[in-house]
Write a structure and sequence with these properties.
By secondary structure, the protein is an alpha/beta fold. The protein is built from 11 helices and 12 strands. It has helices at 12-23, 56-63, 84-104, 140-158, 181-190, 207-220, 236-247, 258-275, 283-288, 298-303, 311-324; strands spanning 2-7, 28-32, 47-50, 66-71, 108-112, 163-168, 170-172, 196-197, 201-206, 226-229, 232-235, 254-255. A 7-stranded parallel β-sheet has the order 3-2-1-4-5-6-10, sandwiched between helices. Strand 4, helix 3 (84-104) and strand 5 form a beta-alpha-beta unit.
Length: 331
Protein backbone atom coordinates (compact mmCIF):
# COMPACT_ATOMS: atom_id res chain seq x y z
CA UNK A 1 0.00 0.00 0.00
CA UNK A 2 1.31 3.43 -0.96
CA UNK A 3 0.64 5.96 1.81
CA UNK A 4 0.61 9.05 -0.38
CA UNK A 5 0.58 10.20 -3.98
CA UNK A 6 2.11 13.61 -4.58
CA UNK A 7 1.36 15.32 -7.87
CA UNK A 8 3.86 18.07 -8.60
CA UNK A 9 6.41 16.24 -6.44
CA UNK A 10 9.24 17.39 -8.70
CA UNK A 11 8.43 21.06 -8.06
CA UNK A 12 9.40 23.38 -5.22
CA UNK A 13 6.56 22.86 -2.75
CA UNK A 14 5.88 19.31 -3.90
CA UNK A 15 9.47 18.16 -3.39
CA UNK A 16 9.40 19.50 0.15
CA UNK A 17 6.08 17.73 0.80
CA UNK A 18 7.71 14.51 -0.43
CA UNK A 19 10.61 15.03 1.96
CA UNK A 20 8.31 15.59 4.93
CA UNK A 21 6.37 12.42 4.11
CA UNK A 22 9.60 10.42 3.88
CA UNK A 23 10.73 11.86 7.22
CA UNK A 24 7.61 10.30 8.73
CA UNK A 25 8.48 6.94 7.18
CA UNK A 26 5.64 7.10 4.66
CA UNK A 27 5.70 5.26 1.33
CA UNK A 28 5.43 7.88 -1.42
CA UNK A 29 4.52 7.79 -5.09
CA UNK A 30 5.26 10.86 -7.22
CA UNK A 31 3.34 11.62 -10.39
CA UNK A 32 5.88 12.91 -12.91
CA UNK A 33 5.69 13.60 -16.61
CA UNK A 34 8.04 11.58 -18.82
CA UNK A 35 11.25 13.52 -19.29
CA UNK A 36 10.47 16.01 -16.53
CA UNK A 37 13.17 17.69 -14.45
CA UNK A 38 13.52 15.49 -11.36
CA UNK A 39 16.51 17.14 -9.68
CA UNK A 40 14.41 18.17 -6.67
CA UNK A 41 13.76 14.53 -5.73
CA UNK A 42 16.94 12.92 -7.07
CA UNK A 43 18.14 10.11 -4.80
CA UNK A 44 14.96 9.95 -2.73
CA UNK A 45 13.32 6.61 -1.99
CA UNK A 46 10.09 7.22 -3.89
CA UNK A 47 8.11 5.39 -6.52
CA UNK A 48 7.72 7.32 -9.77
CA UNK A 49 4.39 7.01 -11.51
CA UNK A 50 4.78 8.51 -14.96
CA UNK A 51 1.75 10.37 -16.16
CA UNK A 52 0.16 13.72 -16.86
CA UNK A 53 -2.72 15.73 -15.41
CA UNK A 54 -4.28 15.74 -18.89
CA UNK A 55 -4.09 11.93 -19.20
CA UNK A 56 -6.95 10.42 -17.11
CA UNK A 57 -5.70 6.86 -17.61
CA UNK A 58 -2.32 7.75 -16.09
CA UNK A 59 -4.09 9.39 -13.14
CA UNK A 60 -6.14 6.29 -12.47
CA UNK A 61 -2.92 4.26 -12.41
CA UNK A 62 -1.27 6.79 -10.10
CA UNK A 63 -4.03 6.74 -7.45
CA UNK A 64 -4.43 2.96 -7.45
CA UNK A 65 -3.71 1.55 -3.99
CA UNK A 66 -3.06 5.02 -2.52
CA UNK A 67 -4.33 6.11 0.89
CA UNK A 68 -4.06 9.89 0.47
CA UNK A 69 -3.44 12.34 -2.37
CA UNK A 70 -1.56 15.63 -2.21
CA UNK A 71 -2.47 17.48 -5.40
CA UNK A 72 0.32 20.06 -5.54
CA UNK A 73 0.90 20.15 -9.31
CA UNK A 74 0.03 23.31 -11.23
CA UNK A 75 1.09 25.30 -14.25
CA UNK A 76 2.65 28.24 -12.41
CA UNK A 77 3.42 30.91 -14.97
CA UNK A 78 2.67 34.61 -14.68
CA UNK A 79 3.06 34.91 -18.45
CA UNK A 80 2.03 32.44 -21.13
CA UNK A 81 1.79 32.96 -24.87
CA UNK A 82 -1.33 30.77 -24.76
CA UNK A 83 -3.13 31.53 -21.46
CA UNK A 84 -5.71 28.81 -22.09
CA UNK A 85 -3.00 26.27 -21.26
CA UNK A 86 -3.11 27.43 -17.64
CA UNK A 87 -6.85 26.80 -17.44
CA UNK A 88 -6.54 23.39 -19.08
CA UNK A 89 -3.90 22.18 -16.58
CA UNK A 90 -4.95 23.96 -13.40
CA UNK A 91 -8.71 23.61 -13.69
CA UNK A 92 -9.15 20.59 -15.96
CA UNK A 93 -6.22 18.75 -14.42
CA UNK A 94 -7.53 19.32 -10.89
CA UNK A 95 -10.93 17.98 -11.86
CA UNK A 96 -9.33 14.90 -13.42
CA UNK A 97 -7.17 14.20 -10.34
CA UNK A 98 -10.13 14.53 -7.98
CA UNK A 99 -12.31 12.33 -10.15
CA UNK A 100 -9.62 9.64 -10.13
CA UNK A 101 -9.17 9.99 -6.36
CA UNK A 102 -12.90 9.64 -5.81
CA UNK A 103 -13.11 6.52 -7.97
CA UNK A 104 -10.16 5.01 -6.07
CA UNK A 105 -11.77 5.70 -2.71
CA UNK A 106 -8.83 7.55 -1.15
CA UNK A 107 -9.23 8.54 2.48
CA UNK A 108 -8.03 12.15 2.15
CA UNK A 109 -7.12 14.69 -0.54
CA UNK A 110 -5.15 17.87 0.14
CA UNK A 111 -5.49 20.36 -2.70
CA UNK A 112 -2.78 23.03 -2.98
CA UNK A 113 -4.31 26.37 -3.92
CA UNK A 114 -2.64 29.75 -3.32
CA UNK A 115 -3.29 32.93 -1.36
CA UNK A 116 -3.59 34.48 -4.81
CA UNK A 117 -7.07 32.93 -4.99
CA UNK A 118 -8.16 34.69 -1.78
CA UNK A 119 -9.54 38.15 -1.18
CA UNK A 120 -7.56 41.15 0.06
CA UNK A 121 -9.47 43.59 2.32
CA UNK A 122 -9.65 47.15 1.07
CA UNK A 123 -8.82 48.59 4.51
CA UNK A 124 -5.26 47.23 4.53
CA UNK A 125 -5.84 44.46 7.06
CA UNK A 126 -4.54 40.96 6.22
CA UNK A 127 -6.76 38.67 4.17
CA UNK A 128 -8.21 35.51 5.67
CA UNK A 129 -9.88 32.37 4.36
CA UNK A 130 -13.23 34.16 4.76
CA UNK A 131 -12.40 37.46 3.01
CA UNK A 132 -14.98 37.99 0.23
CA UNK A 133 -13.59 37.44 -3.25
CA UNK A 134 -14.77 36.72 -6.78
CA UNK A 135 -13.32 35.76 -10.14
CA UNK A 136 -13.25 39.41 -11.26
CA UNK A 137 -10.76 40.13 -8.45
CA UNK A 138 -8.19 37.79 -9.97
CA UNK A 139 -5.23 39.49 -11.67
CA UNK A 140 -4.02 37.52 -14.70
CA UNK A 141 -4.81 34.06 -16.09
CA UNK A 142 -2.76 32.15 -13.48
CA UNK A 143 -4.72 33.52 -10.52
CA UNK A 144 -7.99 33.11 -12.39
CA UNK A 145 -7.22 29.47 -13.14
CA UNK A 146 -6.27 28.76 -9.52
CA UNK A 147 -9.42 30.47 -8.26
CA UNK A 148 -11.56 28.30 -10.52
CA UNK A 149 -9.59 25.16 -9.60
CA UNK A 150 -10.16 25.89 -5.92
CA UNK A 151 -13.88 26.12 -6.59
CA UNK A 152 -13.69 22.72 -8.31
CA UNK A 153 -11.96 21.24 -5.24
CA UNK A 154 -14.52 22.72 -2.84
CA UNK A 155 -17.30 21.40 -5.10
CA UNK A 156 -15.91 17.87 -4.84
CA UNK A 157 -15.77 18.26 -1.06
CA UNK A 158 -19.42 19.32 -1.04
CA UNK A 159 -20.24 16.16 -2.99
CA UNK A 160 -18.54 13.97 -0.38
CA UNK A 161 -14.89 13.65 -1.44
CA UNK A 162 -12.68 14.22 1.66
CA UNK A 163 -10.87 17.31 0.31
CA UNK A 164 -9.02 19.90 2.39
CA UNK A 165 -7.69 23.05 0.68
CA UNK A 166 -4.43 24.77 1.64
CA UNK A 167 -3.44 28.25 0.44
CA UNK A 168 0.34 28.76 0.67
CA UNK A 169 1.63 32.33 0.58
CA UNK A 170 5.15 32.97 -0.79
CA UNK A 171 7.42 30.07 0.24
CA UNK A 172 11.20 30.37 0.37
CA UNK A 173 13.82 27.78 1.19
CA UNK A 174 15.70 24.84 -0.32
CA UNK A 175 14.93 22.83 -3.47
CA UNK A 176 13.61 25.79 -5.47
CA UNK A 177 15.08 24.26 -8.62
CA UNK A 178 13.48 26.45 -11.33
CA UNK A 179 13.46 28.86 -9.28
CA UNK A 180 10.09 30.44 -8.43
CA UNK A 181 9.60 34.22 -8.72
CA UNK A 182 10.33 34.61 -4.99
CA UNK A 183 13.42 32.43 -5.28
CA UNK A 184 14.55 34.40 -8.33
CA UNK A 185 14.29 37.58 -6.25
CA UNK A 186 16.67 36.03 -3.67
CA UNK A 187 19.12 34.97 -6.40
CA UNK A 188 19.01 38.41 -8.02
CA UNK A 189 19.75 40.05 -4.68
CA UNK A 190 22.70 37.75 -4.01
CA UNK A 191 24.10 38.57 -7.45
CA UNK A 192 23.69 42.30 -6.93
CA UNK A 193 20.96 42.59 -9.57
CA UNK A 194 18.19 43.69 -7.20
CA UNK A 195 19.06 47.37 -7.16
CA UNK A 196 15.56 48.78 -6.64
CA UNK A 197 12.20 47.79 -5.17
CA UNK A 198 8.53 48.56 -5.60
CA UNK A 199 6.38 49.81 -2.74
CA UNK A 200 4.67 46.49 -2.15
CA UNK A 201 4.78 43.50 0.16
CA UNK A 202 3.88 39.84 0.54
CA UNK A 203 3.54 37.11 3.11
CA UNK A 204 6.71 35.03 3.43
CA UNK A 205 6.87 31.50 4.86
CA UNK A 206 9.54 28.80 5.07
CA UNK A 207 8.80 26.13 2.47
CA UNK A 208 9.39 23.47 5.13
CA UNK A 209 6.49 24.92 7.16
CA UNK A 210 4.34 24.85 4.02
CA UNK A 211 5.22 21.18 3.51
CA UNK A 212 4.43 20.37 7.12
CA UNK A 213 1.20 22.30 6.77
CA UNK A 214 0.13 19.92 4.00
CA UNK A 215 0.63 16.91 6.26
CA UNK A 216 -1.12 18.65 9.16
CA UNK A 217 -4.04 19.51 6.86
CA UNK A 218 -4.35 15.83 5.90
CA UNK A 219 -4.32 14.86 9.57
CA UNK A 220 -6.32 17.63 11.26
CA UNK A 221 -7.96 19.73 8.56
CA UNK A 222 -11.73 19.93 8.22
CA UNK A 223 -13.15 18.61 4.98
CA UNK A 224 -14.26 21.39 2.65
CA UNK A 225 -12.31 24.08 4.53
CA UNK A 226 -9.36 26.30 3.56
CA UNK A 227 -6.16 27.02 5.49
CA UNK A 228 -3.63 29.78 4.78
CA UNK A 229 -0.10 28.41 5.06
CA UNK A 230 1.86 31.58 5.72
CA UNK A 231 3.87 33.45 8.29
CA UNK A 232 5.08 37.08 8.20
CA UNK A 233 3.72 40.00 6.22
CA UNK A 234 6.73 41.92 4.99
CA UNK A 235 7.54 44.67 2.49
CA UNK A 236 10.05 44.24 -0.33
CA UNK A 237 12.24 46.84 1.36
CA UNK A 238 12.24 44.78 4.57
CA UNK A 239 13.12 41.63 2.62
CA UNK A 240 16.06 43.49 1.10
CA UNK A 241 17.20 44.57 4.58
CA UNK A 242 17.03 40.99 5.89
CA UNK A 243 18.94 39.63 2.91
CA UNK A 244 21.50 42.37 3.43
CA UNK A 245 22.05 41.15 7.00
CA UNK A 246 22.32 37.54 5.86
CA UNK A 247 24.56 38.07 2.84
CA UNK A 248 26.50 41.18 3.80
CA UNK A 249 25.37 42.96 0.64
CA UNK A 250 24.08 46.54 0.51
CA UNK A 251 20.25 46.56 0.28
CA UNK A 252 18.42 48.32 -2.57
CA UNK A 253 18.04 52.03 -1.88
CA UNK A 254 15.97 53.03 -4.88
CA UNK A 255 12.18 52.67 -5.05
CA UNK A 256 10.72 52.43 -8.55
CA UNK A 257 7.42 54.25 -9.18
CA UNK A 258 4.63 51.89 -10.16
CA UNK A 259 4.15 53.49 -13.59
CA UNK A 260 7.84 52.95 -14.46
CA UNK A 261 7.64 49.24 -13.57
CA UNK A 262 4.36 48.94 -15.49
CA UNK A 263 5.84 50.54 -18.62
CA UNK A 264 8.98 48.38 -18.48
CA UNK A 265 6.95 45.18 -18.06
CA UNK A 266 4.66 46.19 -20.93
CA UNK A 267 7.69 46.59 -23.20
CA UNK A 268 9.12 43.24 -22.10
CA UNK A 269 5.84 41.50 -22.88
CA UNK A 270 5.73 43.09 -26.33
CA UNK A 271 9.12 41.51 -27.04
CA UNK A 272 7.98 38.21 -25.51
CA UNK A 273 4.99 38.00 -27.85
CA UNK A 274 7.40 38.19 -30.78
CA UNK A 275 10.15 35.89 -29.50
CA UNK A 276 8.07 33.47 -27.42
CA UNK A 277 10.60 33.75 -24.57
CA UNK A 278 9.03 34.66 -21.19
CA UNK A 279 9.59 38.28 -20.11
CA UNK A 280 11.90 38.76 -17.15
CA UNK A 281 9.20 40.83 -15.45
CA UNK A 282 5.67 39.84 -16.52
CA UNK A 283 3.06 42.58 -16.53
CA UNK A 284 0.87 40.39 -14.31
CA UNK A 285 3.57 40.45 -11.62
CA UNK A 286 3.64 44.25 -11.66
CA UNK A 287 -0.16 44.43 -11.55
CA UNK A 288 -0.18 42.04 -8.58
CA UNK A 289 2.39 44.21 -6.82
CA UNK A 290 0.00 47.16 -6.80
CA UNK A 291 -1.60 45.60 -3.71
CA UNK A 292 0.24 44.31 -0.67
CA UNK A 293 -0.39 40.57 -0.54
CA UNK A 294 -0.79 40.39 3.23
CA UNK A 295 -2.61 37.45 4.83
CA UNK A 296 -3.21 35.92 8.24
CA UNK A 297 -2.21 32.28 8.92
CA UNK A 298 -3.95 32.40 12.34
CA UNK A 299 -6.48 29.70 11.51
CA UNK A 300 -3.84 27.22 10.32
CA UNK A 301 -1.71 27.96 13.39
CA UNK A 302 -4.69 27.51 15.70
CA UNK A 303 -6.40 24.50 14.11
CA UNK A 304 -3.53 22.65 12.42
CA UNK A 305 -0.56 23.64 14.57
CA UNK A 306 1.22 25.19 11.57
CA UNK A 307 4.88 25.91 12.49
CA UNK A 308 6.09 29.50 12.26
CA UNK A 309 9.80 29.39 11.44
CA UNK A 310 11.43 32.82 11.50
CA UNK A 311 11.50 34.22 7.95
CA UNK A 312 15.15 35.16 8.52
CA UNK A 313 15.87 31.44 8.69
CA UNK A 314 13.79 30.87 5.57
CA UNK A 315 15.76 33.48 3.62
CA UNK A 316 19.06 32.22 5.02
CA UNK A 317 18.24 28.61 4.07
CA UNK A 318 17.24 29.74 0.58
CA UNK A 319 20.43 31.78 0.13
CA UNK A 320 22.63 28.92 1.30
CA UNK A 321 20.86 26.43 -0.97
CA UNK A 322 21.12 28.66 -4.04
CA UNK A 323 24.80 29.28 -3.39
CA UNK A 324 25.56 25.60 -2.74
CA UNK A 325 23.84 24.56 -5.99
CA UNK A 326 25.52 27.07 -8.29
CA UNK A 327 22.67 29.55 -8.82
CA UNK A 328 24.73 32.47 -7.56
CA UNK A 329 27.78 33.51 -9.56
CA UNK A 330 30.87 34.45 -7.55
CA UNK A 331 31.10 38.20 -6.92
Amino acid sequence: MIDALVTGGTGFVGANVVRELLTQGRAVRVLARPGSDRRAIAGLDVEIGEGDLLDPASLRRAVKGVNSVFHVAADYRLWARHPEELHRVNVGGTRAVLEAAGEAGVSRVVYTSTVGALGIPGDGTPGTEATPVSLRDMVGPYKASKFLAEQVALGFAHQGLPVVVVNPSAPVGPWDVKPTPTGRMVVDFLEGKMVATLDTGLNLVHVRDVARGHLLAAERGKIGEKYILGNRNISLAEIGALLSEIAGIRPPRVRIPYWVAWSAALSMEAVARVTGAPPRVPLTAVRMAKKRMYFSPARAVRELGLPQTDVRDALRDAAEWFRAHGYVKAR
